[in-house]
From TrEMBL:
Keywords: Cytoplasm, Nucleus, Proteasome. It comes from Cyanidium caldarium (Red alga). InterPro entries: Ntn_hydrolases_N, Proteasome_alpha, Proteasome_beta2, Proteasome_sua/b, Proteasome_suB-type. Component of the proteasome complex. This is Proteasome subunit beta. It is found in: Cytoplasm; Nucleus. Belongs to the peptidase T1B family. One of its GO terms (cellular component) is nucleus. Its main location: cytoplasm. The lineage of its organism: Eukaryota, Rhodophyta, Bangiophyceae, Cyanidiales, Cyanidiaceae.
Amino acid sequence: MDSVISLTGRDFVMSVADVTAARSIVVMKDTQDKVVELDRHRTLSVAGEIGDAIQFTEYIQRNVHLYELRSGTPLSTRQIAYFLRGELARFLRQHPYQVNLILGGYDADGGPSLYYVDYLGSLHRMPFTAQGYCAYFILSTLDRLYRPGMTLDEAVSVMHQCLAEVGERFLLQQRKFVWKVTDRDGTRTLPQSADTFM
């Protein structure tokens, strides 16, 4: 039961994800960071089976780093999105990964961008999106509250309203979330990560 939410602002991408690793009715861990830093300016948020999520994100992270070492230039967010899509489509025919992804990044020439990628390899660039069960009702909340060019404070306010909706709608409460922002200075974790939502 994952909750992963991301949106783009004026000059940043914000990603918020729950930190729970659960199977059936058992919570195995409550410190699982589901917003993985691929490099300094890109994050990959993941929802899905925890084993597949860890294995696939590490595979992508290592390949992005390997490409940079071989070529001497980092991949753009768009290039990583197409690589993700291709790898998911290829693995779909061999060893399917049950993961849904949100790729967020900041490029010096293109600014912030956000890509939705599902487990079938469907790819779409979006201003905001969500993955996991929360997407069923958070997308309408984001559609109502999101405005292009939002400031960081406005985005934090929108995310708080989204998480309040998650707390109200879910039978099982998700109390801990990690908040990450990616902008021209890199990726950083916001202090809201310490917040507890009930």
